[in-house]
Specification:
It is built from 3 helices and 10 strands, in the order H-H-E-E-E-H-E-E-E-E-E-E-E. By secondary structure, the protein is mainly β.
């Protein structure tokens, strides 16, 4: 019995790594980890005011991956936060994709103000194919931590006190569907 438990523990220790895109001879992987511009949306007005359409104002800087509640001392905050950063087309151009490892719990993503899609759920990767223009491209992510028991991944029994963007994010070229 101990051997089976040890094997399961070993096998699931970094299971998320199995779902992460991997660089390969035929595919580049550009990490988006690092400093992102963030804006708290405590009033919930960002979507109505179309914050995704222009660079965010009133921003703080926060590292990704991180738990924003700790970084900005937002204990007990589960509302919307907007993240933004500049991304560039990978060398050689061509088709690309943005990939997110995790957001808690609801996310909407825009590139240069154009909606890529939305994601609901805790602990699941998501992403979309993108057409990155030459030069700077603005990637905007709205993450809303409001959730219920249906948002928990299978096997989870509690909801974290933390919200938001603890993730690794990447630009892939050419794109692929996770896992890849």
């Amino acid at each position: 019995m101990r051997a089976v438990f040890a094997l399961l523990l070993f096998a699931t220790h970094d299971a998320a790594a199995l779902l992460r895109p991997q660089a390969a001879e035929s595919r580049s992987l550009s990490s988006l980890d690092g400093a992102w511009r963030v804006q708290i949306d405590a009033a919930g007005v960002g979507a109505a005011q179309r914050w995704q359409s222009a660079p965010l104002r009133n921003v703080s800087s926060a590292p990704v991956p991180s738990t924003l509640n700790d970084v900005l001392e937002l204990d007990g905050y589960f509302g919307a936060v907007w993240y933004e950063r500049t991304v560039f087309r990978p060398p050689g151009g061509g088709a690309s994709a943005v990939y997110f490892e995790h957001a808690t719990a609801n996310a909407e993503v825009w590139l240069n103000g154009e909606r890529l899609g939305s994601h609901r759920g805790v602990g699941l990767p998501f992403g979309w194919p993108v057409a990155l223009g030459a030069g700077q491209n603005r990637l905007t992510v709205r993450v809303d931590g409001e959730r219920n028991w249906q948002d928990l991944p299978p096997g989870a029994t509690t909801m974290s006190k933390y919200v938001l963007f603890y993730l690794r994010s990447s630009v892939l070229s050419p794109p692929c569907s996770p896992p890849c």
